[in-house]
Amino acid sequence: MPTEDPTNEEWEWFLNKPEEALLKCFPSQIQATKVMAILDVLSNHSPDEEYIGEKIEPYWAEDPVINAAFEVFSGKLVELEGIIDARNVDCNLMNRNGAGVLPYELLEPYSGPGVTGKGVPYSISI
């Protein structure tokens, strides 16, 4: 929209044609397409992505204490996923039902490939 100190000419143009002023603020189609492509690449889950609590490191599996702790941790993640799924289908909870309400999936531990709202990966690389 108009700069902080528009000239009289710019201000008049804005007042006479506000739609054109707004349209000049938007990026070009090529700029918008580049941003969309980059966001898609950065948002995709790789088919071989590893998620927290999914697999234990082979070296850690040899130690019974670490292996037992990992099993407890993995069990808690599965339990958490069940709690999230149960809350998503509970119509008595606020903001969980109605038209256009998407299920909460952000902290579900695991995800399939593609752009999803799920999964807690071991690490990210942007």
UniProtKB/TrEMBL annotation:
Alphabetical list of SUPFAM superfamilies matching this protein: Lipoxigenase
InterPro entries: LipOase, LipOase_C, LipOase_C_sf
Keyword Oxidoreductase among record annotations: yes
Keywords (A to Z) from UniProt: Dioxygenase, Metal-binding, Oxidoreductase
GO BP terms in the entry: lipid oxidation
Keyword hit for Oxidoreductase: yes
Pfam families: Lipoxygenase
Protein name as it appears in the record: Lipoxygenase domain-containing protein
Taxonomic source organism: Solanum verrucosum
Lineage: Eukaryota, Viridiplantae, Streptophyta, Embryophyta, Tracheophyta
